[in-house]
């Protein structure tokens, strides 16, 4: 809760996600539970996957310290090769083998003991967790053990950079989720720049003293072994593990890292449970003991590869579905950009009008059909309701029995064009061109928004087609194409219907209507004022009646307001 608003916190990073809302009414339920204003469901105005967004660029390149583990995905999705650049200085960080325990409690206790041992030697420790919940568990145990520490999560987001900058202080203990603090260099011995910035007007002597003190701390941390990284469990992706390890041993500094695991961890329980637990049973492990062996590390790495492969397949499948929408997106955005670039869309409107009236007439007068099959009353009603056109088609046919179908079609279209041209003469060509462009853009945006929502609903349930022995992807392509074609037809119809229904007025008529509106408003105001006066008079009469009914004491103040007692004023008259 922040400023009367429910804000989602990412369980993995601890970061607040401004503007993000849960779907299907869940966010509204939480808002009701918290007693804050319930807001409407978010409406998707535009959507695109990261992959298709990046593909919009003609040239694509990137730089990161952990791209090598995802080299296959970069190659298959973006057609990009991954090149590993050698480090500037030799990397001397010690990546210690994983320690695997039977239970979560044993693992946490081992982590606390490791932290105690490291901080006793003055070595700073950074503890990385996979979620806020896990970081709070470790924090509680450290508090019980009396170890001072800092926790990086959504509660202390504003101080994040400062906490991370001082995480290299001797014997400092910092707990962070896997993403927290990335991009901030952890300086061994702490940040002397942060100390200088904390002073209002530092002198040269103060700065020199701060640098000297920092150098002493820096040397002490180097001697203790640099920053030590502790991972409370393996992440689903090796890339995130490498990012955590990469917090230590920068620019040739010393450092170390170790991951602590248990058989109760999600990754181990799902993917590596049987093999590793069988190995641990064979070794006859006792409570509190850990297994440390290259085979275990290899089994865990294989488990991570399985998860990465599964996640890659999910992303690839999502991309295949989005590729269908991407073709439609490209067509709509191209059409929209063309509309924005031109000032005169009258040719497009005229072309659309022909298509719309042809389709409308076809619905009531089938092509090459007998006159007995024509639904003239239905056509007249449709033209009136959807296009505001009064056409006596039945009278035409009565007066001109020889009126041919094709001639009738041409006359209906000509009449609609004539009515539209009369409107244009009233408001002027420039105003009408501006209005046409606005209507087309507004209608396109509205229908595209509805189409995106419909595509979302289709995507959510399309997997059920598999039970009917149909390929969900092919069904999605087929149905989404049909929906897109229907949307384009709706676009034409809505544009012509809106343009046909618009009411235009001469400037003199507009001025007369405005004057009439003002006179009506003044008349209503006068009536309300008279009504209030009548109400006030009625209230005064009621008060007078109440005063007359109430018995006034002889020693009470006289109601006339003279200030005298009643018996000495109007009371004498009675």
TrEMBL record:
<dbReference type="Pfam" id="PF07516">
    <property type="entry name" value="SecA_SW"/>
</dbReference>
<dbReference type="InterPro" id="IPR004027">
    <property type="entry name" value="SEC_C_motif"/>
</dbReference>
<dbReference type="GO" id="GO:0006605">
    <property type="term" value="P:protein targeting"/>
</dbReference>
<feature type="domain" description="SecA family profile">
    <location>
        <begin position="1"/>
        <end position="292"/>
    </location>
</feature>
<keyword id="KW-0479">Metal-binding</keyword>
<keyword id="KW-0811">Translocation</keyword>
<keyword id="KW-0472">Membrane</keyword>
<keyword id="KW-0547">Nucleotide-binding</keyword>
<dbReference type="InterPro" id="IPR000185">
    <property type="entry name" value="SecA"/>
</dbReference>
<keyword id="KW-0653">Protein transport</keyword>
<dbReference type="Pfam" id="PF21090">
    <property type="entry name" value="P-loop_SecA"/>
</dbReference>
<dbReference type="GO" id="GO:0043952">
    <property type="term" value="P:protein transport by the Sec complex"/>
</dbReference>
<dbReference type="GO" id="GO:0006886">
    <property type="term" value="P:intracellular protein transport"/>
</dbReference>
<dbReference type="InterPro" id="IPR044722">
    <property type="entry name" value="SecA_SF2_C"/>
</dbReference>
<keyword id="KW-0997">Cell inner membrane</keyword>
<dbReference type="GO" id="GO:0046872">
    <property type="term" value="F:metal ion binding"/>
</dbReference>
<keyword id="KW-1003">Cell membrane</keyword>
<keyword id="KW-0067">ATP-binding</keyword>
<dbReference type="InterPro" id="IPR014018">
    <property type="entry name" value="SecA_motor_DEAD"/>
</dbReference>
<dbReference type="Pfam" id="PF02810">
    <property type="entry name" value="SEC-C"/>
</dbReference>
<dbReference type="InterPro" id="IPR036266">
    <property type="entry name" value="SecA_Wing/Scaffold_sf"/>
</dbReference>
<dbReference type="GO" id="GO:0017038">
    <property type="term" value="P:protein import"/>
</dbReference>
<dbReference type="GO" id="GO:0005524">
    <property type="term" value="F:ATP binding"/>
</dbReference>
<dbReference type="InterPro" id="IPR011116">
    <property type="entry name" value="SecA_Wing/Scaffold"/>
</dbReference>
<keyword id="KW-1278">Translocase</keyword>
<dbReference type="GO" id="GO:0005886">
    <property type="term" value="C:plasma membrane"/>
</dbReference>
<dbReference type="InterPro" id="IPR011130">
    <property type="entry name" value="SecA_preprotein_X-link_dom"/>
</dbReference>
<dbReference type="InterPro" id="IPR036670">
    <property type="entry name" value="SecA_X-link_sf"/>
</dbReference>
<dbReference type="InterPro" id="IPR027417">
    <property type="entry name" value="P-loop_NTPase"/>
</dbReference>
<keyword id="KW-0862">Zinc</keyword>
<dbReference type="GO" id="GO:0005829">
    <property type="term" value="C:cytosol"/>
</dbReference>
<dbReference type="GO" id="GO:0031522">
    <property type="term" value="C:cell envelope Sec protein transport complex"/>
</dbReference>
<dbReference type="InterPro" id="IPR020937">
    <property type="entry name" value="SecA_CS"/>
</dbReference>
<comment type="similarity">
    <text>Belongs to the SecA family.</text>
</comment>
<keyword id="KW-0813">Transport</keyword>
<keyword id="KW-0963">Cytoplasm</keyword>
<protein>
    <submittedName>
        <fullName>Protein export cytoplasm protein SecA</fullName>
    </submittedName>
</protein>
<dbReference type="Pfam" id="PF07517">
    <property type="entry name" value="SecA_DEAD"/>
</dbReference>
<dbReference type="InterPro" id="IPR011115">
    <property type="entry name" value="SecA_DEAD"/>
</dbReference>
């Amino acid at each position: 809760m922040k400023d009367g608003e429910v804000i989602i916190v990412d369980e993995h990073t601890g970061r607040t996600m401004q503007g993000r809302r849960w779907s299907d009414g869940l966010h509204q339920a939480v808002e009701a539970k918290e007693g804050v204003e319930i807001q409407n469901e978010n409406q998707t105005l535009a959507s695109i996957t990261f992959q298709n967004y990046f593909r919009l660029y003609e040239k694509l390149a990137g730089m990161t310290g952990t791209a090598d583990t995802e080299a296959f995905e970069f190659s298959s999705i973006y057609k990009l090769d991954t090149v590993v650049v050698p480090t500037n200085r030799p990397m001397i960080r010690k990546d210690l083998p994983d320690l695997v325990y039977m239970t979560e409690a044993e693992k946490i206790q081992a982590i606390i003991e490791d932290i105690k041992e490291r901080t006793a030697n003055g070595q700073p420790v950074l503890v990385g967790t996979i979620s806020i919940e896990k970081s709070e568990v470790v924090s509680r145990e450290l508090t019980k053990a009396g170890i001072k520490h800092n926790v990086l999560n959504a509660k202390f987001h504003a101080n994040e950079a400062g906490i991370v900058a001082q995480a290299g202080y001797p014997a400092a203990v910092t707990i962070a989720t896997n993403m927290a603090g990335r991009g901030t260099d952890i300086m061994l011995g702490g940040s002397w720049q942060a100390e200088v910035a904390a002073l209002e007007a530092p002198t040269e002597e103060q700065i020199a003293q701060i640098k000297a003190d920092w150098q002493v701390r820096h040397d002490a941390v180097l001697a203790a072994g640099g920053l030590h990284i502790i991972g409370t469990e393996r992440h689903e992706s090796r890339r995130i593990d490498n990012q955590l390890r990469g917090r230590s041993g920068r620019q040739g500094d010393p450092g170390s890292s170790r991951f602590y695991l248990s058989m109760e961890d999600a990754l181990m329980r799902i993917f590596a449970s049987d093999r590793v637990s069988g190995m641990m049973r064979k070794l006859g492990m006792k409570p509190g003991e850990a297994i440390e062996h290259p085979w275990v590390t290899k089994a865990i790495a294989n488990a991570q590869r399985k998860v990465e492969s599964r996640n890659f397949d999910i992303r690839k499948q999502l991309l295949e579905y989005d590729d269908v929408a991407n073709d439609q997106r490209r067509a709509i955005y191209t059409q929209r950009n063309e509309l924005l670039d031109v000032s005169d869309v009258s040719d497009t409107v005229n072309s659309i009008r022909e298509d719309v009236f042809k389709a409308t007439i076809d619905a009531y007068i089938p092509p090459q059909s007998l006159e007995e099959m024509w639904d003239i009353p239905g056509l007249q009603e449709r033209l009136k309701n959807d296009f505001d056109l009064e056409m006596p088609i039945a009278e035409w046919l009565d007066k001109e029995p020889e009126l041919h179908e094709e001639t009738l079609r041409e006359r209906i279209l000509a009449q609609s064009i004539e009515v539209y041209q009369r409107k244009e003469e009233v408001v002027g060509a420039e105003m009408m061109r501006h209005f046409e462009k606005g209507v087309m853009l507004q209608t396109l945006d509205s229908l595209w928004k509805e189409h995106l929502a419909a595509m979302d609903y289709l995507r959510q349930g399309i997997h059920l087609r598999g039970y009917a022995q149909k390929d969900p992807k092919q069904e999605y392509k087929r149905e989404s194409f049909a929906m897109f074609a229907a949307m384009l037809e709706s676009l034409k119809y809505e544009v012509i219907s809106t343009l046909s229904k618009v009411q235009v007025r001469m400037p003199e008529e507009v001025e007369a209507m405005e004057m009439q509106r003002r006179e009506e408003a003044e008349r209503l105001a006068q009536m309300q004022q008279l009504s209030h006066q009548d109400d006030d008079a009625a209230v005064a009469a009621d008060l007078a009646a109440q005063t007359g009914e109430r018995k006034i004491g002889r020693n009470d103040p006289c109601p006339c307001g003279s200030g005298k007692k009643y018996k000495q004023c109007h009371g004498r008259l009675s």
